[in-house]
Design brief:
Order of helices and strands: HHEEHHH
Low-confidence stretches: 16-21
Structural class: mainly alpha
Oligomer: single chain
Distance between the termini: 27 Å
Largest sheet: 2 strands, antiparallel
Helix content: 55-70%
Strand content: 5-15%
Shape: elongated
Length: 159
């Protein structure tokens, strides 16, 4: 029995599936990747600061008019190492579009912006530049963070 054109068409349509087409990636995904790179750099610097604190003297002090502050370097060193590892892992997960990484990155950028607000009297131009970059990073992650996940996943075919 010879197949008819209609039966061939029905058989082909039955085997066809709807492919998932990812959302078009915009230029803002570059800012999300930039946020990830900044998090990696920050994590490496935090880790290095922690290692220096662990291998250096045991205490640091800061003298201000009317006060003397003493800091335990070992506790501060372990804190910076843990923070550095968290920042690096967050950045790696941010590249894959993980939701938890976007949340952590937004919190880190927000804290950075608040800290820079406190540093405006000491370093006004640098603080304003960092605040502007933090705001761009927060916007890019909130508005376009999903694009990293959809841009990196190939279309899937449902059988």
């Amino acid at each position: 029995m010879r197949p008819t054109p209609e039966s061939i068409q029905l058989k082909a349509v039955g085997k066809m599936s709807t492919a998932h087409h990812p959302v078009a990636s915009t230029g803002w995904t570059g800012w999300v990747r930039f946020a990830g790179v900044i998090l990696i750099i920050n994590g490496v610097f935090s880790g290095l600061q922690g290692l220096v604190a662990l291998t250096g003297p045991d205490t640091y002090y800061l003298s201000t008019p009317g006060a003397l502050f003493l800091f335990d370097a070992k506790g501060w060193g372990w804190w910076n190492i843990a923070l550095g590892v968290l920042l690096i892992l967050t950045a790696v997960a941010l590249f894959s579009g993980a939701t938890w990484a976007r949340v952590v990155a937004i919190v880190v950028a927000g804290v950075s912006a608040v800290v820079q607000l406190m540093l405006i009297p000491a370093q006004p131009w640098w603080s304003l530049i960092v605040i502007a970059i933090d705001v761009l990073i927060i916007y890019a992650i909130i508005a376009h963070g999903d694009e990293l996940r959809t841009a990196d996943t190939p279309p899937t075919v449902n059988s």
